[in-house]
Amino acid sequence: MTYPYRLAVLALTAALSQSPIVHAGQIETRGALDAILSGSEEYLEDFEHVSFHAGTSIPVPNPFNHITGAPLWADLLPGATYSSSGDLFMLAGYLHGDDSNILRGEGDVTIAFDEPQLAIGFDIDGGNVELHQVLTFYRDGTVIDTWEFDMAPSATVFAGWQNPVGITSVLITTTPGNNLTEIDNIGWGVVVLNPCPADVNDSGAVDFADILELIGNWGRCEKCAADINADGTVNFGDILAVIAAWGPCAF
């Protein structure tokens, strides 16, 4: 057994049971989302760029973003696009005790991000009947999570979610009632560039095979996959990165 291999096995045995695992799942409050997004350039789209009469709605382009919405909605934040299988409208409504512009889709709304996001969150506004929400989260067209819940009549729910592989879009589907999906205050900002850099051999899992890849490339290794932490050398820092990401790693 070679010396680097022996040390690698010892490090793995000692640290594997203590290694942190980042789980996908619900973010319960906007404050928790803000904490995840802190230190990044957090974006918050509230659609408050155009004023119109309270209680009325106006059609918006479908898909809808700062380019398709120009010139009236040219101040929308870049990085996200909104669409619906039905028509899209902007409602001059009431949210969190104040007047608010709310994006309304007939039956569903999709939020698509230009880059994969670690965590996202937004408000879902309810109608005057109990509604059932189904949220489907995607990474590049592949479903990575789903979440279903009921909303009491006239309720507003904060819907936050995180996934370390990166969320590129979320489909919000509302049933039954009048089949209108209403969202507001979309937050995002932490980009996931590589969902699993520790999966050195691209097998879909971080395991002993990746440890062996590191050992095979031990030492100076400019711009190679085994240099997980990109410090120019394959060393124990990369071993620890593999341990921290141990397990399934696919989307």
Question: What can you see in these coordinates?
Answer:
This protein is 16% helix and 41% strand. The chain has helices at residues 3-15, 30-37, 208-216, 236-244; strands at residues 25-27, 43-45, 57-59, 80-83, 88-95, 98-106, 108-125, 131-139, 142-151, 156-175, 180-188, 205-206, 219-220, 233-234, 247-248. Strands 1, 2, 3, 4, 5, 6, 7, 8, 9, 10 and 11 form an eleven-stranded antiparallel sheet that branches. A two-stranded antiparallel sheet has the order 12-15. Strand 5 (88-95) and strand 6 form a beta hairpin. Helix 1 (3-15) runs parallel beside helix 4 (236-244). The protein is elongated, with a radius of gyration of 22 Å. The two termini are 35 Å apart.
Beta content comes to 35-45%
Order of helices and strands: HEHEEEEEEEEEEEHEEHE
The best one-word shape is elongated
Distance between the termini: 35 Å
Radius of gyration: 22 Å
Uncertain segments are 7-22
* Nearest-integer average pLDDT: 86
Sheet of most strands: 11 strands, antiparallel
Counting DSSP E segments of at least 2 residues, the number of strands comes to 15
Helix percent band? 10-25%
Figure out the total of helices: 4
**Class based on secondary structure composition and strand pairing:** alpha+beta
